[in-house]
Amino acid sequence: MEPGRAVGFKVFSLTAAGRRRLAGGVRLPESPQHRLWRVCRATAEANAPRFRAELEDALRDGLALLAPGACAHSDVWAALETRLQRACARVAAAVYCASEWREPSDEQRDEPNKARTRHVSDIPGPESAALHALGRTIRRIRRHRNLSETALAHAAGIGPDRLAAIEAGQLDPCFDGLIALADALGVPSAELVGDIEVDAGDAR
Fold first, then answer.
1. In the list 43, 66, 90, 110, which could disulfide-bond 124, CB 3.0-4.6 Å?
2. Tens digits of per-residue pLDDT, 93-111?
3. C-beta neighbour count of 149 within 10 angstroms
């Protein structure tokens, strides 16, 4: 840039070198929302075969319990229910992240103060209002289940400090963390990352 004056005001304009550089194309850093989408998509694709295999095993075990002559205890059925719910939630989350979550556009800036409804595919980076809404959802369900932060963090296999940052909307849990939290809370992952309404009042 080089200084100059126009109509009595100090202005800055591109130098010849700057114009040549722009003409050659400028690669901007990846936006937070695109990074989150890319990481979750890659993680989902890598884990999808394992999640499907776990679901197949659970279904196979369930069919065995229905075989003629089988008489399983109710505790066995209850355990299978939990196992199937977890397996289905993981497959659903992987399918969504790998094939249904639309790629965010870097050309559209995030506007957390604008009142509108967002889907999980619009969740941007750590400081976003959407992640604050996600954190509030996790905190609400945790309190409803009378779980302390320490207890939930232990059940999800994450550190208490990380959970506190997630609930505060300062850290995105990423795919594995989201699945672990949903499992620990006993809810489908979709309940944590369904439609998130971001309103101007909460964003301020």
1. 110
2. 888 888 888 887 766 554 4
3. 15
